[in-house]
Design goal:
This protein is α/β, with parallel strands linked by helices and 211 residues long. The protein has ten helices and five strands; from the N terminus they run H-E-H-E-H-E-H-E-H-E-H-H-H-H-H. It has a five-stranded parallel sheet, sandwiched between helices.
């Protein structure tokens, strides 16, 4: 292990799942591999409390079928509450239409609970690099309307923050990136959307992004 790797802060991960065995096993596997600091909660309400007390996390693994979540729209509230940092759908089996809807609502991917431990860690790191992760056989849908379909996943996250009224410094803090990187994303977003400025981009986002 090189010195930079040894000094790197662990990834702060929140697992939201109502099955004790799943939470404990996934947390144990990721902790044993190193590089992850894992917190677990059993419900959507507990996840909101964890965000208020200890968040934001670097990444959230969110079970689709929670006892206090009756729809994907309720689960997607956690995506907005996480302020642009990735939330991943984590479930044993979901329909392709549900995965497509989750991506349109801002989820950063879908990871089946059957995923091997080492593959899970690799998938999480890809997501932290700004990629959308889907298992084999799930092609990323092209459901976003033009010109939003030209934006990268990270640009869509930044645009969501802009729509919510966040300034560059706040976006940088939420997404754990530099203000310079945020400014680069904003310029790229405005170019792709043909927006005059960030306010115009926010208006376009309000019209086109899923609520």
């Amino acid at each position: 292990m090189t010195e930079p790797e040894a000094l790197a802060a662990p990834v702060r991960l929140l697992i939201v799942d109502d099955h004790d065995l799943v939470r404990d096993l996934v947390a144990a596997h990721l902790t044993a591999q190193g590089g992850f600091s894992v917190e677990t909660v059993p419900t959507l309400a507990a996840a909101r409390s964890a965000l208020a007390e200890n968040g934001p996390f670097d990444l959230i693994l969110l079970d689709f079928a929670l006892p206090d979540s009756r729809s994907l729209a309720e689960s997607a509230d956690l995506v907005r509450a996480h302020g642009g940092r990735p939330v991943v759908l984590f479930s044993g089996m979901v329909r392709r239409e549900t995965v497509n809807d989750a991506l349109a609502k801002g989820f950063a991917g879908y990871i089946p609970k059957s995923t091997a431990a080492r593959e899970l860690a690799a998938a999480l790191r890809q997501i932290l690099d700004g990629k959308v992760w889907l298992p084999p056989g799930f092609d990323r849908p092209t459901r976003l309307p033009p010109p939003l379909d030209s934006l990268t996943p990270r640009e869509l996250q930044v645009l969501g923050c802009i729509r919510a009224g966040a300034m560059n410094k706040e976006i940088a803090g939420r997404m754990a990136i530099s203000e310079v990187t945020v400014k680069m994303h904003v310029r790229s977003i405005c170019t792709k959307l043909r927006a005059r400025n960030r306010t115009h981009a926010a208006i376009i986002a309000a019209e086109l992004l899923p609520s």
